[in-house]
Amino acid sequence: MLDLETRELRYFVTIAEELHFRRAAERLGMAQPPLSRAIARLERRLGVQLLERNRRGVRLTDAGSVLLGEARKALDAVSAAAELTRRAGMSRQPLILATKAGASHELLQRLLEAVASEHGPGHMEVQLCEVGEQAELLRSGATDVAIMHRPVDDLVGFDTVDLCTEDQVVIVPAAHPLARRNEVTLAELQNDHSVPLARWPRLDGTYPNGPGPEVRTQSQIAQLVALGKALLVIPASSRAWQWPEHAAVTVTDAPRVTTLLAWPAGSRSAAIAALVRVASGLGDPEGHGDSCVRDGQTGGPPPRR
Fold it and tell me: Which residues form the HTH lysR-type domain (predicted)?
């Protein structure tokens, strides 16, 4: 079995990102000749050419493209291992929960109150992030758990417990004709060319085709809707960030969205296990209108003690 050093992988990833040896060497804080020698040794050990060099710069070979993807995963895993180990050795370290800003606000409030009631204040911190960032934060070890959503978030490599499932609404400008409706269908939204639907990135970072603006943050879409430049379909509970210039209308045939708590698969953290038990008791047993209605399904076992 070939052993690869993290130093070699870091060198290669930097060159693959810069596609230029001199710029890569400057970024790494080293001279170019030893960097070139290190890559040449790596290619000899692997028995494949990773980079094609020419006067204009560098191009990845097919083998190099494969190594780039795998090297990034390996370096992320090493970084996460270090961070998780460091955090595990710190006494009374609070759990860090990642959640998309503006999403599941009422559920998050209930979770924080329940955790504070059972474990006292300071047991858990919240890290607000943008759309799709929770998975990266969990995998890097920067956070311990995350509030995520099925089917829109990347849940590969995580255990989960479902907290609630809810319908979706469309956020429209308050002056839009749809604002006077009680409900609407996806077909109506897609066929309404006066204001297009905003386009969020897919899990791979690419955007679906369409006339609507490409957005990445809640603040972007909030202002675009208020200006009459876009519409947004979101889970009903995410209306917490709705502006006075917005109106929400139920989308009758939009897929239901499940809000869940996620953590690294196979975790043995007693603190995470305790949090999962608290979170499993949440939801909306009263069935309030825009609140999540708990469906009691789980996507993985609680962490083992």
Answer: 4-61
